[in-house]
Amino acid sequence: MSRAMTYHYPWRAMVADYVRAGAGLVCTGAPLLLMEPTGAVRLVLVFLALIFSVFAVQAVLRQVTRIFVSEREIWARPLGARLRWDGLTRLKLAYFSVRRDGRDGWMELKVQSGRRSLRVDSRLEGFTEVVGQAAAAARDACLSLDGATLSNLATLGIRAGVDAAAARPGIREPG
Questions:
Q1: Are 112 and 88 in contact (CB under 8 A)?
Q2: pTM, whole model, 2 decimals?
Q3: How far is CA 135 from the centre of its chain?
Q4: Dist. CA 32–CA 46, nearest whole Å
Q5: Average pLDDT by stretches of 10, the chain with 175 residues
Q6: SS3 labels along 132-163
Q7: CA triplet 74, 79, 80: central angle to 5 degrees?
Q8: Under DSSP, is residue 52 helix (H, G, I), strand (E, B) or coil?
Q9: What's residue 162's pLDDT?
Q10: Residue 51: its pLDDT value, please?
Q11: How many other CB atoms are found less than 10 A from the CB of residue 131?
């Protein structure tokens, strides 16, 4: 049996999320507690406070989550799917930018096996290693990857893709 590597989201990578959630809760909660907003204003503030609360819970869950990767599978604890690499049906690596020039963004890896999927973002310590393992599993499964995923893998220095002749029947190569 192979030993699993463990990855996590470090505190320093999550600070910005905690600051955003806290600022949002203060900006929406303070008027609710200190004033007496009426009707629609109250509803909007309560709705926004709920959104920031959900965001805060997601940040905490992300930080306590551990991603385990072995030669055979990937899984997340405490919450998350358990996927076998040999059952991989989809791999997508997306890049999201916060600026028009494409800088200052992050990547998100989504691996899928049937209806179950697991997502991790580039704040994860060891993200490139996890993506490399997923790309190797996609190669072994002869999965066809979309152009954006291939480009993003190349940006990370990871070889990806399969020869058109080796691709599964019915799966087209991008392009």
A1: yes
A2: 0.79
A3: 15
A4: 8
A5: 84 93 96 90 95 96 94 91 93 90 86 93 95 94 92 89 44 40
A6: HHHHHHHHHCCCCCCHHHHHHHHHCCCCCCCC
A7: 35
A8: helix
A9: 53
A10: 97
A11: 24
